[in-house]
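User: Reviewer 2 asked us to show a designed sequence for the structure in our supplementary figure. I'm pasting the structure tokens here. Could you produce the per-position amino acids so we can include them in the response letter?
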């Protein structure tokens, strides 16, 4: 059978989609190429969140097409995912060498369409039509390179977004919210646990909106066919949302040691979810709370649905439940109409919260979004300058907080060899900090304590050999007992 090379751009959802497509192709008899030069089929799984991501994918495809013209090789070229969904037939007009364009609700059809292209039944395929039930079609998982199960696994629990922020194209590329039944998700997680997976990352465009949109026949979107209508449940006076019910269900699975999730929305951090961090031990002390801006005026223009004050209240509540929780966020600089005062409010919020991880973006206009036609667009030079100033502040916090980690003891889940140095092993703390240490493949999949001996550029270095031999220094104020980490910043 032909070999396939898949290159992925964008978020964890795209990574998960690519993995599922690859697993489906392997099951059909295809092989996975290690490079595009060795492949009979090259697929680019694309992102549309920023213009840079789209241009990168387009330029990559142009380069591939030029190489094929020069060498005379016959290779099937395809676009998958968000840009394929938003541009559709337009991509064939721009790049006639492309053979396949599949939208976000058609990824599970990849093998079928490739079979037809290879047999000559079709010469070109463009399919971006909605497909009911597609949210439950991405469930296959790849084995690790050595044939074993990975230590961590992504599990998609829903597709789509109903938020409609003025800067975002995701509702157009992923469609409205559609949730998988809890029973299906739990079954997938049980299968992963049986294969040796220790940590589950639950994925959704706005993962905390899980189950809020009605499913078929007006039933709750998180109920499977034939399942009984649910009764309300409360904990500490708060009615449990469908998402917290899902967390509870995954929490009961033997073999799963840790649960993470991304990407949420601040509106999803109700008291039931905040309290879950204190009562579900497998739910790690790590929360991604995307603020986007520290200015109420800009948040309103972005149509985010919360204020700066509400955001800070969420942070205070999370730290009250888990003082050592690791906090990450998204920030956009240069939104249309952003003044210096607005920007200063964002910097002040960063200083007040001291996030562990900041994903800092320069505003990028997306087609057919309200923000793209807003007045008072900022010059690129102003956006670049503000981006540099924000990065400088965040980096300064990171250096200080990482240096403070030296001498502390943390628990890590060992994932495998370090990506930058395969002769060393790496693991991740419960608060989502990467730790590199001298180890061996036998440590893979283990929960172990390491003592931090050095802090590098957003990476910690640990020594498991000295744990218990050197008197442990007291943890930072408010550090979690299981992690013994306060909240350094990671970029």
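Assistant: Here is a per-position design you can include in the supplement:
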């Amino acid at each position: 059978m032909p070999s396939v090379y898949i290159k992925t751009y964008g978020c964890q959802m795209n990574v998960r989609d690519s993995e599922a497509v690859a697993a489906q192709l392997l099951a059909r008899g295809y092989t996975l190429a290690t490079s595009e030069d060795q492949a009979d089929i090259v697929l680019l799984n694309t992102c549309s969140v920023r213009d840079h991501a789209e241009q990168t994918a387009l330029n990559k495809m142009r380069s591939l097409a030029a190489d094929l013209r020069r060498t005379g090789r016959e290779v099937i070229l395809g676009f998958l995912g968000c840009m394929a969904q938003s541009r559709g037939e337009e991509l064939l007009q721009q790049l006639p060498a492309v053979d396949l364009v599949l939208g976000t609700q058609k990824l599970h059809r990849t093998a079928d369409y490739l079979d037809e292209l290879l047999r000559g039944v079709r010469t070109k395929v463009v399919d971006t039509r909605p497909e009911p039930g597609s949210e439950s079609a991405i469930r296959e998982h790849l084995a690790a390179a050595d044939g074993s199960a990975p230590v961590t696994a992504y599990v998609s629990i829903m597709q789509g977004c109903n938020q409609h922020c003025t800067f975002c194209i995701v509702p157009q590329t992923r469609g409205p919210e559609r949730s998988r039944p809890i029973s299906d998700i739990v079954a997938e997680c049980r299968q992963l646990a049986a294969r040796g997976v220790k940590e589950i990352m639950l994925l959704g465009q706005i993962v905390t909106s899980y189950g809020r949109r009605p499913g078929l026949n007006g039933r709750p979107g998180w109920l499977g066919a034939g399942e009984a209508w649910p009764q309300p449940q409360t904990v500490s006076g708060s009615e449990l949302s469908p998402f917290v019910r899902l967390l509870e269900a995954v929490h009961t699975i033997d073999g799963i040691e840790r649960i993470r999730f991304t990407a949420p929305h601040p509106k999803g951090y109700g008291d039931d979810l905040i309290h879950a961090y204190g009562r579900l031990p497998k739910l790690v002390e790590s929360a991604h709370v995307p603020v986007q801006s520290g200015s109420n005026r800009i948040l309103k223009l972005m149509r985010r649905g919360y204020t700066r004050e509400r955001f800070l209240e969420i942070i205070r509540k999370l730290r009250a439940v888990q003082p050592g929780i690791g906090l990450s966020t998204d920030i956009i600089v240069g939104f249309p109409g952003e003044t210096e005062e607005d920007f200063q409010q964002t910097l002040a919020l960063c200083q007040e919260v001291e996030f562990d991880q900041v994903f800092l973006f320069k505003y990028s206009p997306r087609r057919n979004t309200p923000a793209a036609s807003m007045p008072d667009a900022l010059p690129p030079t102003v956006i670049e300058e503000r981006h540099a100033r924000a990065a400088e502040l965040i980096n300064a916090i990171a250096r200080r907080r990482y240096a403070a980690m030296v001498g502390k003891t943390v628990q890590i889940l060992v994932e495998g060899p370090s990506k930058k140095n395969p002769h060393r092993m790496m693991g991740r703390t419960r608060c989502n900090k990467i730790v590199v240490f001298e180890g061996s493949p036998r440590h893979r999949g283990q929960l172990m304590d390491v003592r931090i001996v050095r802090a590098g550029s957003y990476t910690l270095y640990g020594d498991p050999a000295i744990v218990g031999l050197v008197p442990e220094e007291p943890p930072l104020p408010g550090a979690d007992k299981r992690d013994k980490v306060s909240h350094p910043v990671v970029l």
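For the response letter, you might also mention the following. The first strand starts at residue 3 and ends at 8. The first helix runs from residue 12 to 28.
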